[in-house]
Write a structure and sequence with these properties.
This protein is 10% helix and 60% strand. The chain is built from one helix and nine strands. The protein is globular, with a radius of gyration of 20 Å. 25% of the residues are buried.
Length: 181
């Protein structure tokens, strides 16, 4: 057997094994949506309250998730400067199998941020970068859940990273099939 065929057989066997031991075959494709509130931390600025709108499509633990967000203006170390954040985040998330109405979430995404600095005139800094999210989710009812996430945004254009700590309420998605609800 050639190396190419051996690798193909090994990879196929691995994917079949992973599917048999994950969410595969348990849920179909489901859509969900939600609202969130986050605190964004920037260097030399107070934490900014950020509103979030979440849309996602998931299947068997994997989800394609899009988040749009916008913040209010907050002060910086320079009293004459205020800053606000807005942007989008589109990425691939994985939620572990629920146990005791709780699950964990890991997400990798592409993020576009607009940082608006308001002094005598408004200066907008548009950045792109990658975001990494870890979080925990809790069931509130059969089809609703709450997620607490920490997101680290590594920007290509900023010297400092942006940190988000968010709380989201989600409707829809895969229903819970446990015994509590």
């Amino acid at each position: 057997m050639k190396l190419k065929h051996s690798l193909l057989l090994t990879a196929s066997t691995l994917f079949i094994f992973l599917s048999a031991n994950s969410h595969a075959g348990r849920e179909g494709v489901n859509a969900y949506y939600g609202l969130g509130l986050a605190a964004a931390s920037l260097k030399n600025a107070d934490p900014a309250p950020v509103g979030q709108i979440v849309l996602g499509v998931e299947e068997d633990g994997w989800a394609l998730e899009a988040i749009g967000y916008s913040s209010t203006e907050v002060g910086t170390d320079d009293p004459a400067t205020d800053i606000s954040i807005s942007g989008t985040d589109i990425g691939l998330a994985f939620r572990t199998i629920e146990k005791n109405e709780r699950y964990y979430k890991f997400k990798f995404s592409k993020t576009e941020l607009d940082l608006d600095e308001k002094q005598t005139s408004t200066t907008t800094t548009a950045t792109t970068g990658k975001s990494y999210t870890i979080g925990m989710g809790f069931r509130t009812s059969r089809e609703n859940r709450v997620e607490v996430d920490y997101t680290f945004h590594n920007s290509d254009d900023l010297s400092d990273s942006v940190h988000f700590l968010s709380l989201k309420y989600l409707w829809g998605g895969a229903p819970y099939h446990g015994t509590s609800f």
